[in-house]
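Recap for those who missed Tuesday's class. We walked through two folding examples back to back. For each one, the amino acid string is listed first and its predicted structure tokens come directly after. Nothing is annotated here on purpose, so try labeling regions yourself before you check the end of the notes.
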Amino acid sequence: MTLQQLKYAITVADKSSMSEAAKSLFISQPSLSNAIKELEKQIGITIFIRTSRGITVSSEGLEFLGYARQVVEQAELLEEKYLGGEPARARFSVSTQHYSFAVDAFVELIKENNAEEYDFTLRETRTYEIIDDVKNLNSEIGIIYLSSFNEKVIGKLISESSLCFHQLFTASPHIFISSSHPLAAQKSVTLDELVDFPYLSFEQGEYNSFYFSEEILSTQFHKKAIRVSDRATLFNLAIGLNGFTFSTGIISKALNGNGIIAVPLNIDEKIRIGYLTHKNAAISRLGSIYIDKIKKTSKNILLT
């Protein structure tokens, strides 16, 4: 087993395609395919399952790739430090629901890493896709919430995907509204007071089930409802239409300014925010740093 073979396997997993991986590695597809088959033969497991639709990573392959990434990362750091090699190109990916604290932590990670070259990915995406990203190692970390309503369904999917949910904190429900909204001066609001205002939520595509909703109270009926796909659009509509959305109440003024505020919602419910990791994949150095950052960032925001 060589470092080159490990790099080949990691690239194939990242690209989810033998042909695309071969292009990025500047080798022929047959050569790459043979190298992967030889590696699988050496270690006695099937890393990639080949089908007519393409390739997927096997459960054994997921565990192997978790360790492979650590080995390659450490080898690159050794070469950089002792052999005068070029600085290693740092790579990291996280998938998250639309939380500003996750973006804050991502910014802090990049600042602290201070690498001359890096290839980082931050996906603000749908609930099912977050779970799927971490399951298939497209992202090392996933950030979602659980509640008394969705926990049974989402928890089952997390378990079936060989993932672990690590709780970060518990938040009380709030609404996000414009600072000029008619209800902005209130210390708290009720559901009845929101009836005549447009309700904003993040669409979930194919998995638009109540359980996969990014917002609590997903079964609640709203006379005026608008679904969006990104946070900037949601905030723009909240300001332009006096709309509202249900939230954790955590918002970064540094990133989002003072145009959007959080007001407590008078309901008996709790939101458990946490991060997902794969059971069979070891956490990388950058993954550990990011987890530490989201813990500190969310704690700091909750205290302000």
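Example two. Treat it independently of the first, because the proteins are unrelated.
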Amino acid sequence: MRSHEIDYKIIGEDIQIVEIELDPNETVVAEAGSMLFMEDGIMFETKMGDGSQPEQGFLGKMFQAGSRILMGESLFMTHFTNRGHGKRKVAFAAPYPGTIRAVDLAQINQNTLIVQKDAFLCAALGTSIAIHFNKKFGAGLFGGEGFILQRVQGDGMAFIHSGGVVIERQLNNETLRIDTGCVVGFEPQLSFDIERAGNLKSMVFGGEGMFLATLRGTGKVWIQSLPISKLISRLSVGGGNAGKESGSVLGGLGDLFER
């Protein structure tokens, strides 16, 4: 199924929204609860699945629903369709402060993007949002992303959100090491793994964590400056969870060496 062609505008600087303009009978699919506003003529319907395979049977829809539960997402997705006679707008907001990035899947290798499990915001109807298992044990155990990622596939526009600022890097047969949890998404041909961060001294006192996400190959990767886990950690410094997300294995004791 070819994706619907949609027009869009991203509004804001630090806390962004995406405003999508739909022609009559065009549809955008979004995560439940992400809608900000919609104009008269826009109708929405909650469905089990992304609608990319309309001929899919009940068992197929149940499998897709089950995979969404594994990803920690809502069982259902919301389909917004313009049932009016002219152009109508619907807008979506991310669940936490950050940046929204528009990705044209037709320009991505294999028309596929691998993203962290809470990065998908919305996309043109025809886009497939499915589970993606990380085959590397180390990446699943220490990567911050876990074994389970999302695979976004299609030939239209998809919108992903991230914490803080998001940057795009093009690797040309190169290796890039990134703070675990800061990888928003990457093209499927890149190799994603987790490697030890330097020697024992660096791991204990470096403040950068014991492991780093490592991507190798040729392709694009998107990186976020402030993942939600790190934001929660900083906001709960004085609470019962203080130190649990610290980069040093010494937790609060390690902070003494930084003062």
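Answers for example two:
The first helix runs from residue 58 to 70.
The CA atoms of residues 48 and 62 lie 8 Å apart.
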